[in-house]
Structures are given as C-alpha cells and as structure tokens.
Amino acid sequence: MEDNLDKFVRELQSEINQEMRETYGDVVFQRWQNPLYMGRMDLPDGYARITGSCGDTMEIFLRFAEGRVGEASFETDGCASSMVCGSFAAELALGKSPEEIMGITGETILEILGGLPKHDRHCAYLAADTLREAVRHYLKHTRK
C-alpha cells in the first residue's frame, strides 16, 4: 500500500513534468529527461569554461579527428535550460570542422529548441559561446 508521502512525491513530480513540458516544449522536455553528451572528457583537444552573467558555468570538451569533432561533451552547474543547451551545443559540434562550429550561435540553439522563455534565452548563448571558445582553444594549441 502506497503511503501518503510516496503519493505526494509521485503527484508532485507529475506536476513538475507537466509544467516543464508546457513551459519549455517537447524538445526541451525530452532532452531534460535524457541529457546527451554530459560528462567530463579526459585530455580534450579543445576545452572552454565560461561563467555567464546569471552565474551558471558551462564547460565544453572537444576531441578532433581528421579536422572534425569526433567526440564532444559538456558539463554545467546551471539550471535545466543550461543543461539542455549544453547538450545540444555538444551534439551540434559532432562531425563539424572548426569553421563550421564557429557559425553556431545562441540563435542556432534556440531555433533547434523551438525557443526558450525570455529569462532562459541566455543559456543558449552561454552554450554557443563556450563551444566557440573551445574551438579557439583547439586552434590555438594546434597552430603552435
């Protein structure tokens, strides 16, 4: 028999999920439930860590093979929107050259997500800025 606390927790989680899906849309909700490419990478070729004006910190790790990103991952200490944006930034980098990645912007990420509420839009820009900075790190160290 389910006790009152278990029932309360289950109902609360259901409400949170419903509100998240309604507020952020299905693409964001699905990635929030199943974030991809999350985690540190040992010895990346490209790396960046940026703390945004909101206080969230994003890290991007890139490993290149034959001039294109073969592996990408991210970490963030931020909110769900930062996590989702970091996940998509890492995904967008896969298979791309440094030049192609430099074209990825916050608007690119927002378009894929179907937008974000105004108060969370900065997360897409933080992820894109961090991704481009990781490419700059890679280029700086490969040209030496």
What does this 3D model show about the protein?
This protein has 144 residues and is of the alpha+beta class. It contains 6 helices and 3 strands. It has helices at 4-24, 26-33, 80-93, 98-101, 106-113, 122-142; strands spanning 46-51, 57-65, 68-76. The longest helix has 21 residues, at 4-24. It is elongated and about 60 Å long.
CATH class: Alpha Beta
Strand order of the largest sheet: 1-2-3
Total beta strand runs: 3
Percentage of residues in DSSP E strands:
15-25%
What are the secondary-structure elements, in order, as H or E?
HHEEEHHHH
Number of separate helices: 6
Q: What number of structural domains do the residues give?
A: 1
**Main β-sheet, in a few words?**
3 strands, antiparallel
Provide the CATH topology.
Sufe protein. Chain: A
CATH architecture: Alpha-Beta Complex
Distance between the termini: 66 Å
Q: SS-based structural class? A: alpha+beta
Low-confidence stretches: none
Layout of strands and helices, then pairs:
Blueprint: H1 4-24, H2 26-33, E1 46-51, E2 57-65, E3 68-76, H3 80-93, H4 98-101, H5 106-113, H6 122-142
Antiparallel strand pairs: 1-2, 2-3
Helix pairs in contact: 1-2, 3-6, 5-6
What attributes characterize this protein structure?
144 residues, alpha+beta, Sufe protein. Chain: A, 3-stranded antiparallel sheet, 6 helices, 3 strands, 53% helix, 17% strand, elongated
